[in-house]
Amino acid sequence: MNSPIALKTPLIDQNIAGLRAGDRVLLSGVIYTARDAAHKRLVDTLRNGRPLPLPLEGQVIYYCGPAPARPGYVIGPAGPTTSSRMDAYTIPLLDAGLKGMIGKGTRNQSIRVAISRFRAIYLVAVGGAAALLSQRITKMDLIAFEDLESEAIYRLEVLDMPLVVAYDISGGNLYQDGIASYQDQEMLP
Predict the structure, then answer these.
(1) What is the domain-level CATH number for residue 137?
(2) 129 to each of 45, 76, 96, 120, 180, how far by Cα in Å?
């Protein structure tokens, strides 16, 4: 098994062009949280021609609604949410410059095609590892939609967040390729 690949934000084509589905990465830099309600507001803002509350060019959105921090901690548990819930809002954000997404689970066909078309990347975090993932977050600031509480948009600084490439810019698909790989090894019927 290969060593994890260090990846820093903001993402540019040269950073992610060589990544392939199944590669392990350690992500460092600034990322933003957003779930369904925040995604809807971001897309509505774009459609109304108003400025967004965060820069999207080269940025990464983590599909996460962090829990409140205990005293002495930067953040509470911060695990990924199911990514397919954001599919209806993803293409306008990719078109506005979004370069990476972090969540869990598969995406629909139109999103997989858009990830390749916009030269973006979809990374997955291990579900159920919210406490471990929160240890990789070194700073958190609320930046938009405070009324959404834990589903507001937060700016996070992360250091070596462990992730896996699920969909790459070349159309690689960890879910599809992984199943095929196990079938080739006669591990699955």
Answers:
(1) 3.20.130.10
(2) 32, 12, 31, 25, 26
